[in-house]
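Sequence only, no structure available. Ideas?
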Amino acid sequence: MLELFVNEEGGLTAGGYGLCIGILLVCLLAAAVHRGGGRAEANPRRLAFCAMAAALAYVTSFIRVFKLPYGGSVTLMSMLFIVLAAYWFGVRTGVLVGFAYGILQFLQEPYFLSLFQVCCDYVLAFAALGAAGFFRNRKNGLIKGYVLAVLLRGAFHALGGYLYWMDYMPDTFPQSLRSLYPIIYNYSFLLAEGAMTIILLKIPAVEKALDVIGRMATSKGSTPITEKV
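Reply:
I predicted one. Tokens follow.
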């Protein structure tokens, strides 16, 4: 059965790509659904912003400031867009958008060793970015949520590293730190991108712009958002 979706090299077959795209669409549609008045309703505004968040994260993930030899890179703040969706719409929506983004990452560079390896490296790691929603509507919530998201993503990557990637540790790596190799490797690029992103978020103009966009994203009415003079 697995051969229908994964080839012998660990990549995806046409059926595998089709399955991933189908899951991606379901996740984005699910993220657009909220409960209102006791029944489930689709929110077109939320769907649009969630789709844009996933798309922008995917595009910026190709813009790499630095790339590590065994996977992982410092991108143009690609994680931020998933964190913003979580911060604006809550944990449940953030996890779904992060899950969808993980599917996109798997489509971008698929590698299948086992189902749990895929879960660690793609599904759980990126879905964890949705945890930023726990700090929704709190003081400095976006920064706190972003830090939590980065730490959780790194934890799942490190778990996958311990289980599947220890054999790839270079001989030049200090043997005294062997037990910390997956943690050091994965957090090296995640924290570098995280620091770069937090510096950007602390710029007043950026902070103000994201506040305006956030109010647009979460607005329930059709009245345009205007700045107070």
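The radius of gyration is 19 Å.
Hope that gets you unstuck.
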